[in-house]
Each structure stands twice: as C-alpha cells, then as structure tokens.
Amino acid sequence: MNGNLITDDIRTYAKCLRLSNFAQNCSDYFHKAQIDKPTYQDFILNVLKTEVEERQKRELQRRIKKAKLPRSSNLDSFDFNHSAGITRMQLGQLRELAWLDQMYNIILMGPSGTGKTYITGGLIRDAVLKGYKAQFIPMDQLVEILRMKDVSTSAMSAYKHLTKCNLVGIDDIMLMPMKKEEAVAFFNLVNLLYENASLVITTNKAPTEWVEILQDEVLATALLDRILYHCDIIKLTGSSYRMENRSGFLNKNTYSSTSNQQKNETEE
C-alpha cells in the first residue's frame, strides 16, 4: 500500500481522535523516527506526551485570553523603585496566592498611576498560570454587565462566568456614582462570590467614602461587611507612573524649530 495513502489515513484517524498536533505533523514524526529508530513504546510516548503538552499550551492561552488581562500584567517586571506602599516581600507573599486558597480579599487603594491596576492584572495572571479560573474587569464594564444581564444573553453569559471564577479583579471601584439598581446588583454579585471566591479591588476611595458613592448607608455597610471580613488593605502612594513616563507624538525639537521659524517670519 502506498506510503502517502497510509499517512493520509493516519492523519484522518488522528483528526477523528482530536490528536491535532499529531495530525498536523505526522510526516515529521515518521521522518524523525526513521532517523532516530525509537522503540514502538518510545515513539507512542513521544506522540502522546507532545500532544498533551500542546493541548495544555492552547488551554492556557485560552484561559489567559478569557481573563481579559490589562496590557501590562507581568509582575516579574514590577518597579519597586517607583511604587511606594508595597514591599518586595509583600508582593512575593501575594504572588504565592495562599490568600486565594483561604478566600481572602485584597483592596489596593491609592491615587491614579501608583500601580493598582498593574498589580491586580499581575495577580490575575499568576492565578491563571497556576490553574485558577480568574478574570480582570473594569468597574464600568461590570456595571454594564449587571445592567444588561437580564435582557442580553451575552451579558448573562459574562455574568455567569464571573460567578464561577476563583478570583475576580475589579478595577476602579467606586470611581463614579452608581444608581440604586446598579448598586443592588453589585451587592448581589459580591454576596454570591462571598466565601466562594476572592476579590482584588482597586480604588482611590477609602471604604468610609463608599457610603456617599452608593447613596445608601445600609447597602454600603452590608457590602463592606462581606468584602472586609477576610481582607488585606494595601495603601499605595507616590506620583503617577504614567505622568512621569508619558511620551508625546510630536518631536519637541522639531516643534521648537518650527515655532522659532514662524516667529522669525512674523518679525520679518
């Protein structure tokens, strides 16, 4: 029987078994086997081992994409020289994720640009890499999901995914006032996650200011009771990293030269 036809049949059967890596690269496997001459057991072991590894890589990529991480989310590159309020040891303890196993919450509090979002995204990424189901979500997007979940299938799907997470990172909580129904829906989500998952929350408002944002003292008290029951609050300080490292599109020297040229032309 023609060798190419046999290879085609093997590829077809491999696809039926969803051995996608082997189906795609079976010719390379056979060519390498002709050179290395492995035992049958070693050949099959290599095929299956590589298939599992490739599946794990694809699954990890899928979960990282599902986590909706911010662009900068690798804590290996965290700049301790800029951010004040968290030590190298504290960040190391957070990255071990023991608090996640114990259903603790983390509140990162401080002004804009002090690393709150970066740390949150990094902890979400670390959790995903260690096999947890986790998601990062800005507060405005969360409010939109809460508002639309009863009338939109996509919003309901996003809501259900959040409720099944081990860790949810909510960015910029209490930045803007919330309507009564939005605040109640947010409380219901937190209550659903309470002692079933952990939260990492970023905010520039102290918990004592949440009453004003929610415009309901009873609701704010109940919300804080659930979040703060098992919780560490980390207060970040310092100037804005983004403002100190901002860049402009226009070349300053070019702009300066153009301005001087226009000035000379005006004087002439």
Automatic annotation (TrEMBL):
Tagged with keyword Nucleotidyltransferase: no
Matches recorded under InterPro entries: DNAC/IstB-like, IstB, IstB_ATP-bd, P-loop_NTPase
Keyword Nucleotide-binding attached: yes
The IstB-like ATP-binding domain, residue ranges: 13-247
Source superkingdom: Bacteria
Keywords for this protein: ATP-binding, Nucleotide-binding
Molecular function (Gene Ontology), one example: ATP binding
GO BP annotations listed: DNA replication
NCBIfam families: IS21_help_AAA (NF038214)
Annotated protein name in UniProt: ATP-binding protein
Organism: Hallella mizrahii
